[in-house]
Specification:
The protein is α+β, with helices and mostly antiparallel strands. It has three helices and ten strands. It folds into two domains: 56 residues; 80 residues, no CATH class. The strands form two sheets. Strands 1, 2, 3, 4 and 5 form a five-stranded antiparallel beta sheet that branches. The protein has a five-stranded mixed beta sheet with strand order 8-7-6-9-10, covered by helices on one side. The two termini are 21 Å apart.
Length: 159
Amino acid sequence: MKTIIYLKEVPFFKKFFGITLGIFGFISLLSGQIIFGAIFFMLGINFILTEGIEIDLESKTYRNVKSIFGKNFGKWSVYPEFEYVSIFKTKESQRINVVTATTSITSDIILLNLFYKGNKYFTVYKTTDKKDAFEVAEHLKLALDIDILDATESEKKWL
């Protein structure tokens, strides 16, 4: 694995709404309604755009990325000297609003953070599979020559 990419997931309804707006905007542009078409097309792009981080282990660089349809955009920078990778379990909440009702959906996730300069960190990976998280952490450990902190249980331990 040469690069590791962490992208925030775009909810299904947000993707659907974004693609619908984009198609409507594109059709409006083709029919000559330039202003409305451009507005709806850009709104659609904004809805499906996601953010994250990409780390290139070979060149020791990283970039904060904006991603659309699998294409990542961002400026590469040399990454700092990482001290350790932390694996921890947390909850992720997603709020869904409809005209008269609001609900929150909560799910368990596991995050991998690369720590440097004490308490500064990058979130580099998100998963729901504990085994997958430990495999990626092990890869980071070998590639970056750092330790792993397992914080998935109530008592933290170094691996």
